[in-house]
Design brief:
This protein is mainly α.
């Protein structure tokens, strides 16, 4: 007869699970409120979502204190993980989500924000991303990935345009393919090592001196393809422009930030130990992927006639730029990844929020897209404040000093040089120069062209809601004054990354 297994509550260390449970409980609470008292104003759900995310943030601060005191902490049968990568990425996920939610306080003509299900799905999605980054268990990563993805597909479709349904179906199809690749890759690693925990997989492969290198190659190729979809790496990027165009501008901005930081963290945990172990072919594949993604995305962005699609290709290029940190694999490069993405979050969310101001429920006759360059022509004459703020975000995305992303780009390029990737650093600098052209193109349209009838005149900060002005103001302040907090932010990020062993 088997003896019972006694498990104490203390040994489970449930604190590691708390940050993920809070948004799940909050989502269920929203659904219960709607069940018993439907028809509530959306402002209540916005405030409730912000409260839940605020509580989540407080628990993350508590988890950060535990990490600083005890180092890496495992919990819940050693499947949950508190380390520097988990804490930093969750801070970005929750903070960006808190900036996104108030954008729901917009005009009623965009109906998806009137549904409580929108906010419940949004919180479920956040919980999924948090599960992804706070574990090294391949099964739990998959559960988090699919939880977040399924919620995100629905959020896109709720925008209720023809292109929104098309975008949701494309994203779902590509996401299902990526999930299949991930499952096959995980199966290969489990067959090779008998473990589904990344640290154990690394230990077994290194102990065997990568004897089954052919099977390792197969597993890594499947994993690279899976995360290539999630990170929009070329050639797995094809869904990105269409999905961004079909989504609301605010949700597209959110998608360019939060899902990718979660995928970056998992890729960092999974691929860096292989690179450090001397698996040369993986380094070569990542090198080619990083260079091709940066370069091709910039070239495609050059020929776009729609600003939202341009920003979509821009996001692909930035993802390739940041993916270089995983290739380099040093503490400096990993710190640069988080620094870059924090600064990018301010700038890119601000850019897409400006597109949110110019949104239209129904397109005028003869206008094929909602955010064509012609719509921004002569904007400085019709709305000088909006033109100046949009120009600020474009200059930052281009990497011009002294704006936020200049410092992120400089630190990332510096980490490449320090890590011995001088040629890669030159390619990164060259791509930054190429990208400057299409960002400046929008500035030229706004400041040097005359307004075009039937395209302009509906972009104005005056008509923006208070919540939208606040979010854009926070993004602008972060973009301009990031340099003042750069050293403190860099020290904060580096301490967490270094103490995690990355």
């Amino acid at each position: 007869m088997l003896s019972p297994i006694n498990v104490s509550i203390e040994s489970l260390n449930l604190m590691t699970l708390a940050p993920m449970l809070i948004p799940i409980v909050g989502a269920l609470l929203i659904l219960v409120i709607d069940l018993f008292k439907s028809g509530q104003d959306k402002s209540m759900y916005v405030m409730l979502s912000l409260l839940i995310l605020g509580i989540d943030f407080i628990f993350l601060l508590e988890a950060a204190g535990i990490f600083e005191k005890n180092g890496t902490v495992m919990g819940v049968f050693d499947v949950m993980l508190i380390d520097g990568l988990a804490i930093l990425s969750q801070f970005i996920i929750v903070s960006a989500s808190m900036l996104f939610i108030p954008l729901a306080l917009t005009q009623k003509r965009f109906h998806e924000f009137s549904y409580p299900e929108f906010f419940a799905l949004f919180l479920f999605m956040i919980a999924g991303f948090q599960f992804m980054v706070a574990t090294d268990n391949l099964i739990l990563i998959f559960v988090g990935l699919e939880t977040a993805s399924l919620a995100l597909y629905t959020l896109i479709a709720m925008h209720n345009r023809d292109k929104s349904f098309e975008a949701a179906v494309k994203y779902f199809t590509m996401g299902a393919l990526a999930a299949g690749f991930y499952s096959f890759g995980s199966m290969v690693f489990y067959a090779l090592t008998g473990s589904i925990e990344i640290n154990q997989i690394a230990a077994v492969l290194e102990a065997n001196n990568f004897a089954d290198i052919g099977f390792v190659l197969i597993g890594v190729v499947f994993m690279l393809a899976s995360f290539g979809f999630k990170l929009s790496m070329v050639p797995f990027h094809t869904w990105t422009p269409d999905v961004y165009e079909g989504s609301s501008a605010a949700l597209a901005g959110y998608m360019s930030i939060v899902p990718k930081i979660a995928a970056f963290v998992v890729a960092m945990r999974l691929f860096e130990f292989l690179i450090h172990s001397g698996v040369v072919w993986l380094e070569v594949i990542l090198y080619i992927g990083v260079v091709v993604t940066m370069t091709m995305a910039n070239i495609w962005a050059l020929v776009q006639s729609d600003v939202k699609r341009m920003l979509a290709y821009s996001s692909i290029s930035h993802a390739g730029f940041v993916m270089a940190a995983i290739l380099i694999g040093t503490t400096q490069s990993n710190s640069a990844l988080f620094l870059y993405w924090i600064l990018f979050s301010f700038t890119n969310l601000g850019s897409f929020s400006m597109l949110w101001i110019s949104r239209q429920k129904n397109l005028p006759a003869g206008q094929s897209s909602d955010h064509s360059y012609n719509k921004f022509a002569g904007l400085v004459k019709t709305s000088p404040v909006a033109a100046s703020i949009m120009a600020l975000f474009m200059l930052s995305l281009a990497g011009l000093p002294p704006f936020a992303l200049f410092w992120g780009k400089m630190y990332m390029i510096s980490s490449a040089v320090t890590g011995g990737y001088t040629v890669l650093a030159l390619i990164m600098a060259l791509n930054s120069a190429i990208a400057g052209y299409y960002y400046l193109k929008l500035i030229v349209y706004m400041f040097m062209k005359d307004p075009i009838i039937n395209h302009s005149g509906n972009i104005s900060m005056v008509n923006a809601t208070l919540s939208l002005k606040t979010i854009i103001g926070i993004a602008a302040v972060g973009t301009i004054f990031a340099v003042l907090a750069l050293n403190s932010l860099l020290e904060f990020v580096t301490a967490f990354v270094y103490n995690s062993g990355y």
